[in-house]
Write a structure and sequence with these properties.
6-stranded mixed beta sheet, 3-stranded antiparallel beta sheet, 3 helices, binds magnesium ion, alpha/beta, 23% helix, globular, 9 strands, binds inosinic acid
Length: 171
């Protein structure tokens, strides 16, 4: 599979994003909440570069999609979350596509009493957004193609790839 974004470019961007995040929080402690499973590689690489006191937590959001691109019903599971009352939360996801997932999870976390919720996403797809939503930190803007690797999957495959590639269309 050909790389759309090379591993080294991801590394450099994630390193810079970690500095942007540390600057934005100015030494305050932050609870980094990753949306499973897509956050896996992004979170592991990002948090080890963030120079702030921080805690790590996870939430699950699965949309039952009929196929790779059509959004379905979103199921949020939060039994792994610690108490977020009064906490500054930094929410991480792999990709901002329609925006349904992030919009829903942000309001869910605010409902749990978080003092603030900021969002960092690695990728944002052009021309797909259905819900008004602006991430606070964004890695790369990509064309409207189905991508895999660096946490992103197709049927739970390909998450382990160190780069981001466009899934070849089977003919
Ligand atoms: P949204 O709710 O439409 O913004 O969808 C976000 C979720 O859809 C992401 O967390 C991914 O799990 C999945 N997704 C959207 N586009 C892609 C893609 O190109 N490759 C892999 N997963 C994707
Ligand atoms: Mg996914």
């Amino acid at each position: 599979m050909e790389a759309l974004i090379a591993a080294e470019d991801i590394r450099q961007r994630v390193e810079r994003m970690a500095r942007e995040i540390a600057e934005a929080y100015q030494g305050r402690s932050v609870t980094v909440v990753g949306i499973l499973n897509g956050c896996l590689l992004f979170m592991a690489d990002l948090i080890r570069r963030i120079d702030l006191p921080l805690r790590v937590a996870f939430i699950t959001a699965s949309s039952y999609r009929g196929d790779a691109t059509s959004p379905g019903k979103l199921l949020i599971r939060d039994e792994l979350l610690p108490d977020l009352a009064g906490k500054h939360v930094l929410l991480l996801d792999d990709i901002l596509d329609t925006g349904q997932t992030l919009a829903r999870v942000v309001s869910h976390l605010l409902g749990k009493g978080a003092e603030s919720v900021k969002v960092a996403v690695l990728l944002r797809k052009i021309g797909r957004q259905e819900v008004p939503f602006e991430p606070d930190f964004l890695g790369f803007t990509i064309p409207d193609k189905f991508v895999v690797g660096y946490g992103l999957d197709y049927n739970d495959e390909y998450r382990h790839l160190p780069f981001i590639g466009v899934l070849p269309v089977k003919t």
